[in-house]
TrEMBL record:
InterPro entries: FAD-dep_OxRdtase (IPR006076), FAD/NAD-bd_sf (IPR036188)
Protein name from the UniProt record: FAD-binding oxidoreductase
Origin superkingdom: Bacteria
One Pfam match: DAO
Keyword Cytoplasm: no
Keywords, in A-Z order: Oxidoreductase
Gene3D superfamilies reported in the protein's UniProt record: D-Amino Acid Oxidase, subunit A, domain 2 (3.30.9.10), FAD/NAD(P)-binding domain (3.50.50.60)
UniProt organism field: Reyranella aquatilis
Record-annotated FAD dependent oxidoreductase domain positions: 38-391
Amino acid sequence: MPAVNQSIFATDFKDQPYWWEAFRPQAITAPSLPARTDVVVVGGGYAGLATARALADGGVQSVVLEADEFGSGASTRSGGALSAGLSIGKSFTGRTLDYSPDLVRDVVGWAIDAYRALIDLVEQEKIDCHLEQRGRFLGACAASHYEGLRTRFAKLRDGGATDCRLITREEQREEIGSDFYHGGMVFETAGKLHPALFYGGLLAAVRRRNSITLAGHCRATGLARDGEGWRVSTSQGEVRARHVVVATNGYTSGVTPRLQKRLVPIASHIIATEELPPELIKELCPKGRTFSETRRVLHYYRISPDGKRVIFGGRARFTEIPGELRAQLLHQSLVERFPQLRDTKVTHTWQGNVAFTYDALPHAGELDGLHFVVGCNGSGVSMMPFLGNAMGQSIAGRLHGKVPFAETELPAIPLYSGKPWFLPVIGGAFRTLDYIDEKIR
């Protein structure tokens, strides 16, 4: 383990999400669980809360089980970026996936619908979460990656995406204050928000609906068939339900073993910098966009809602690591992209789990009689509330058509039992391949 450079840390450095300065996880406990309910939702993140909200609006009672405090999971730990696009064709294994043209069109359409639905949700529930629609720049980390973006651009256009355009290396300074990339692609239908304030607003909307029981610090410990319904065992007793919706994503456990074997939890790490001068912020991010890149070990970043800090995230490692090491690795990557931030200090660092699927797509559907909404693959801010809402409407009998992705099979992962033993190996291989692409090819 490398020695940690203590000079990068601000005096008020915290190993916790910067977002929690505005909204902290809530300790909401139920006095007791009802003996029966219509639906038990396992997981109190974006997907779980959106499912419960849609059920309530359809006259269906639900109990939402959250193993910890509400808001302690990945929903308040993300970078807060959102877009009307998914990473089509890029698997966590490094495989290049070839989807059918019909599926590409469907996925592009669902991603656009999810983005628009999030905008509508924020307006309907009057959620103050610093929502901005400024677009996203996807940087090509090597010349060969830019050629790959040309191919991706053609597929997206053929699939109906009209909001994207290629940016040459000569043009990229108009988008980002860095010479690190070899050009890239801009997506105009993209934006950012404060993920914890958005979560807090969604939680408040759920609490306004009387037919929802929120049970925090209540871990699901077992699921068993009970006639045509389910018997759900928890750390606070049993509850029977007609339906169960699993919305645990990157925290899916052995309680649902067949789902666990189809999801790979990968740690995502983030830092927040100290406050920076306005002119430097303008240089780094002239158009207020969010940023991502084509590396296998990717990074993503943005300016904070108050316009004063850089929020910089990525896969410092593919697994959880200590806070100071996490901060140092991300600070090094930040400076690699923005040398002008060499002396900038870190005030916060945090981490959370993202769920990846073998086909690199989100999924919502039914497996062994259990409903599920899982597999955000890094696009959870807009996609998880969208799919949760669709699942809730479907169970309530109010959805016109099918739940998006319900007719795509959630594939099993070869040689995987639910414990991601291979992540350090994949992480090391990806870093080597990224080095070859950027330094040799």
